[in-house]
Amino acid sequence: MKKLLYLSVLFSALMSCKKSGSDETTPTEPSGNNNGTVSAVPSSFTQKVLLEFFTSANFGVCPSGMVKADQAVNSNSARVYSS
Question: What's the predicted TM-score (pTM) here?
Fold first, then answer.
């Protein structure tokens, strides 16, 4: 009975990976009005930071971390963003 179960699982796995001709996609040319040209690279960049906050079941929101994040956003409002 176990052999039959193993064979059916193996058969199902092999059949689910079978490619069909309708799933294939053909590559297309990029759309837009750039005509294949690339613009010049700027001489300077402004670095920006995004702060994201995560919690878990074992560790909730950290109040001191929120205070530090608020301080970072307030002192560098043009470069630091917070979610």
Answer: 0.42
**Mean pLDDT in the chain?**
77
| Model confidence pLDDT, tens digit, residues 9-28 | 777 777 766 565 555 566 66
Q: Residue with structure tokens 């307030």?
A: 74
- Those residues whose C-beta lies under 8 Å from the C-beta of residue 47, and which sit 6 or more positions away, are 79
Element counts in the chain: helices (H) and strands (E): 2, 2
DSSP summary character for residue 6: H
Task: Locate 11 and state its tokens.
Answer: 């058969």
Domain map (residue ranges) of the chain: 45-83
